[in-house]
Amino acid sequence: MHAPFKPLLLSVALAMPGVAWAGPVSGDVVKIGILTDMSGVYAGLSGKGSVLAAQMAVADFGGKVLGKPIEIISADHQNKPDIGAAKAREWFDTQGVDMINDLVNSGVGIAVQKIGAEKHRITINNGAGSIALTNKECSAYGVHYAYDTYALAKGTATALVKQGADSWFFLQADYAFGQALQGDAAKIVTSLGGKVTGTVKHPLATTDFSSYLLQAQGSGAKVIGLANAGGDFVNSVKQAKEFGLTQTLVGLLVFDSDVKALGLAAAQGMTFTTAYSWDINSDTRAFGNKFLAKAGSMPTMVHAGVYSSTMHYLNAIKAAGTDTPEAVMKKMRELPINDFFAKGGKLREDGRMVHDMYLVQVKKPSESRSVWDQLKLLATIPGDMAFKPLSASECALIKK
Amino acid sequence: MDISLQAILSQAMLGLNNGAFYALLSLGLAVIFGMLNVVNFAHGAFYMLGAFVALLGYDFLGKWLGDEGVRLSFWAALLVSPLLVGLLGVLIERLMLRRLYQVDHLYGLLLTFGLALILEGLFSNYFNVAGEPYNGKPAVLEGAVNLGFMFFPKYRLFSIVLSLAVCFAVWFLIERTRLGSYLRAGTENPDVTRAFGIDVPLLRTLTYFLGVALAGLAGVVAAPIYSVSPKMGSDLIIIVFAVVVIGGMGSIMGAILTGLALGLLEGVVKVFYPPLANTVIFIVMALVLLWRPAGLFGKEA
């Protein structure tokens, strides 16, 4: 009776560690969820491209971390915070997802970051713009990586006011994101001695901007600031040209895909701020071309941010020797980020990843040599100038 | 409030532009509903298709034919695009829609709604959702003319004239010609019409072709103004349905006049209180339906 009992005891003993002593990687796999817009207005600038960017990061990392496989799953949040939140809960509770990335759309981004804080799981916002993510809504488990409304407005408005464009009229998408962007830009314009002559709000997804543009034209301002994005931005620029508006048009959030949609003839000369563009240096070009070969289009700053942040997350797991969220967040804050996306990038206490931003200008059709040759670099904005300083942060995590 | 006459006139002009466009789109819907009793939810998708035919013809036709210089000009697109979109409509009518005339028209609505989703999904898969620029606007229509109170883009002036001319032509065709009288007879009493030796199924196919081709034409007209995107139809379809409902489902004149009037109303509301502009159409719809459930020009059932 002694002999058969022994292996049984042994197997129980062997099984025990699985329960009592969880190995360095929970569930023996590092699972990353890409929660994004697969079918709506932001699908072009995030969506499938973000899934691809994360997969590229995993492949370049070697497919394994601490000897365990890395898995990517994805879902469509349809730009609805409730759907995004339900998916995040499901992923954390039953699918063993360790980290959620992308999160385009500020409404979804904020909702999912809250769930991450509650469940002690890491969430990385790349697509969402609202600065609330690292201020009122900040979380010890939340990272805001690529850009935010403050940095976008700061870079662009400062550059233009300095050039003498000191009176602004805003065209604003009538929802949280448009308000944040317009608010940040207006503050910066007035703080530099410029003035805001008025604002007109338009509903999200408007097709006809002509009457709003006529109001802007009548305002007499030198600059028309466009606090909208995607299709709204594209249509407002197109129609401004049609009506022969002579003021400077300024897009406060512009993606490479928008410039492509507008065409250089309509977009030429426009100045804006971005976190990434493929043609800035040899590193950004290398990533851009690699992505282009797989996706058929150049990456947007969201795609680039998803790649870079996924890589940083995996490096942090490697350095920490575990995927425990607290230990990984600690390493993510300690390790500097040095890749094509950011040089000397640093993750702050409030969750903001601070890195250089770029002021770019859309080329003239005659300056462009190929279909994606759209932008020229005007200036690099150092990270500590680009983002809202930690001292001004309203984040409750910061001890003052 | 200091609102100048100039501002009101400019907005009214823009309103007229939108109105002509609403009229063109809702006309197709009204024709299809009036003659076939089909609530054509795919109308927005056909409009999108029309714009895409113009875009693809301009940007890609040359590449497909192996000669980069070949382009479908805007003027050619005005003919080719409605024709192609209309032919797709013929296929849909022959293969699917005609099986549903005998049943409740909810089934037609569901079928066309499904078709719209499929078409939109297909295009979203292959094209940037943000849209592509259409560069084929003819040089003659570049620039603006001085109307005294504003500079009005020549292209928009052209689109107003074209839309109104097409609307009038369609109204004339249906209300004043022999073919039109057959069409109307075929709807009101198909059995008697058939007894006179008229091919009613062929008439129905023609009607659907006409309605769908009108949507395709509107797509070409819209392409130089808006970006061509897979979502452009679904963004607009709700307003167009409201126009048709207010005008009276199926009334040709109702669709044309209501389209124009609502565009104007929207434009003028934008001068006084912009946030109301997108809602005003639906407020009017609610009021009209309370007062005249069949719509302004509709026949009481």
Automatic annotation (TrEMBL), chain A:
Keywords, alphabetical: Signal
CDD domains in alphabetical order: PBP1_SBP-like (cd06327)
Domain of life: Bacteria
UniProt xrefs under Gene3D superfamilies: 3.40.50.2300
Cleavable signal peptide: 1-22
Domain Leucine-binding protein residue range list: 30-363
Family per similarity comment: Belongs to the leucine-binding protein family.
Record-given protein name: ABC transporter substrate-binding protein
Originating species: Chitinimonas arctica
UniProtKB/TrEMBL annotation, chain B:
Stretches that traverse the bilayer: 20-39, 46-66, 72-93, 105-127, 155-174, 206-226, 238-265, 272-291
Topological category with respect to the lipid bilayer: Multi-pass membrane protein
Any Gene Ontology CC annotation: plasma membrane
Similarity-based family: Belongs to the binding-protein-dependent transport system permease family. LivHM subfamily.
GO molecular function: transmembrane transporter activity
Entry keywords, A to Z: Amino-acid transport, Cell membrane, Membrane, Transmembrane, Transmembrane helix, Transport
A GO BP annotation: amino acid transport
Organism of derivation: Chitinimonas arctica
Name of the protein in its database record: Branched-chain amino acid ABC transporter permease
Location(s) in or outside the cell: Cell membrane
Superkingdom of this protein's organism: Bacteria
